[in-house]
Write a structure and sequence with these properties.
heterodimer, A: mainly alpha, two-stranded antiparallel ribbon, 2 strands, B: mainly alpha, two-stranded antiparallel sheet, globular
Chain lengths: 256, 346
Amino acid sequence: MDDAARMDSSIHRLDPRTKIIGTLAFIVTVMSFDRYTVSALTPFVLYPLLLLAISRIPVEPILRKILIAAPFALLVGAFNPFFDRSPMLHIGSFAVSGGWISFTTIALRFFLTVAAALILIATTGMHRLCAGLERLGVPRAFVTQLLFLYRYLFVISGEGSRMVRSVQLRAGPSALPVRTYGTLVGTLLLRSFDRAERVHQAMIARGYDGSMRRLESQRFGWRDGMFVCGWILLFVAARRWNLAELLGNVLGRIAA
Amino acid sequence: MHMADALISPAVGGTLWAVSGGLILYCARKVRESAREILVPLMGVMGAFVFAAQMINVAIPGTGSSGHLAGGLMLAILLGPHAAFLVMASILTVQALFFADGGLLALGCNIFNLGFFGAFIAYPLVYRPIAGSSTSGAHTSVAALVAAIVALQLGALGVVVETVASGITDLRFSTFALLMQPIHLAIGVIEGIATAAVVAFVRRARPEIIVEAPVAAPRGSATLLYGGLILATLVVGGVLSWFASSHPDGLEWSIQQLTGQEELAAPEEGIHLRLATIQEKSAFLPDYSFKSAAESEPESETEVWPAVSAGTSVSGVVGGALTMIIAILIGMLFRRRTAGPPVKTG
């Protein structure tokens, strides 16, 4: 994700606030449809696809993350076809039940919303995202917390996985008995504590006064305004009118 | 236990965003006031620690299964409830953004379910009274176990209430609750055992760390806490009842299952049609109606399935497929146009 965020494109260059607002507007609009709407949702595919295309971030890692996260949402939705059996749609003599339709919308909405969130972070990066959050009024204590968490996430995780590996080398690849577990995780905890103390001292030594300074300045320019206004207009239009059905109707009229 | 966006309605998601956002503001102020400067890096590193601890599995005595720490209660024990809530919120935000674990619209729900109950209910109202100020390890262990179970039961109940109130899944409240609560009883026991084990170790190795944590009895903030709880209950209850009126109750549903749709459909046709016309007249946009708003009207109680005629459905299917293809084509076009080696900047 960090590699993708370090790339450069017109999407990357947008103010982080712009992308945060756009992403939230997208997710809220997508989720505001009722559960039997499939066709009206299809125009929304344009948003993640277009952003992916323009930003040129690699698609596979994003797809992989979506697939990893998919089971839970799809599992809860998978009950719908069993509970909701009333036929809602006839294609020829084949009837589709309401449950299958609502399951389809759950799956579609899952892919759309998760893709939007992942694209936001992949085109923005944690630092710029946090700067944007702070400018949007998120408390500084929380933004600082996010930054610190992200910075030490991989450091401490690496330490943890090295400890696990060394235990596994000595005791085999099974879960740890409670006492050993307490000692191992407790040791990791103490190491984390010590690290925090050293980090704190280092910060004080460098003149930390509670605020994070950034070299990059943010400016909400005309491109940002266009991005936000354009997409929100499109979302509103796609929410109000079923664009896909209109297209289908027009096509039907031409064919007839 | 992380909820995805696909199961959350904007009303429920937005409400819990507001609640969790308010809690974050409140906790951020509390942490700033606490003037423990070390808290800034400590919170960040502890959040990272929770991530790491989730990779390490503990064997559950006597069962042969294993699980791992979720960490909310441990954070509260080590950092105090306000800092712990902020750390949990940050963990869930990073999980949602980087690992697609829990959605953005559902982030408020997830922060509330996993952060609030542990830091502001289980820790002050269960853990502290049981653990007391005694130095015995047994007290702390029992307290951790009970508090973890309480926190996870409440959190799981939160998931059920929020999911059902959103009305996107057809799972009914009782079914979903019967599915979730027992599973989270087991998870709560694991969480409790793991927390107790780690706390016991830290007590032996470095007792000053636990003593050092701010003793934040909820006395001063009790009114605010309970006020918030009542408010949350009212909001959730309101949303739930609004939903309940537009959903078939268990009886209606089982009748439908027993008799099959064909037989009951005929007598209902009259009401169904009449209601559909009423709705069409009263709806803001009849054809592409905002169903979430329309469904909440009491007169549409029996009008559960939106009337769909075959004609519009088929054009919807055709148009939908076409729109998708057009979107993909536009995407490919842009990809091609801007193609070339990606430019990396420092």
